[in-house]
Write a structure and sequence with these properties.
Blueprint (H helix, E strand, L loop, with lengths): L2 H18 L15 H12 L3 H15 L2
Helix pairs in contact: 1-3
């Protein structure tokens, strides 16, 4: 998988997260490799959902768009 494909997958994933959690901003969804915990923490802060629920949703989004 090349960088362009990864970036495209991330854009799709970001869109799905914004649909589910409309309170998220583009700044909340800035992601760099190795910052998964920070991303989940930002989503948790904005939505009040548990870490487990967020991780489950993100995994489902990833399976549906990036398989």
């Amino acid at each position: 998988m090349n960088t362009l494909e990864i970036k495209g997958d991330w854009n799709i994933l970001k869109g799905k997260m914004k649909q589910k959690w409309s309170a998220l901003t583009d700044d909340d969804l800035k992601y760099s490799e190795g910052q998964t915990d920070e991303l989940i923490g930002r989503i948790q802060k904005r939505t009040g959902e548990t870490r487990e629920a967020i991780q489950k949703s993100v995994d489902e989004f990833r399976k549906s768009c990036c398989a």
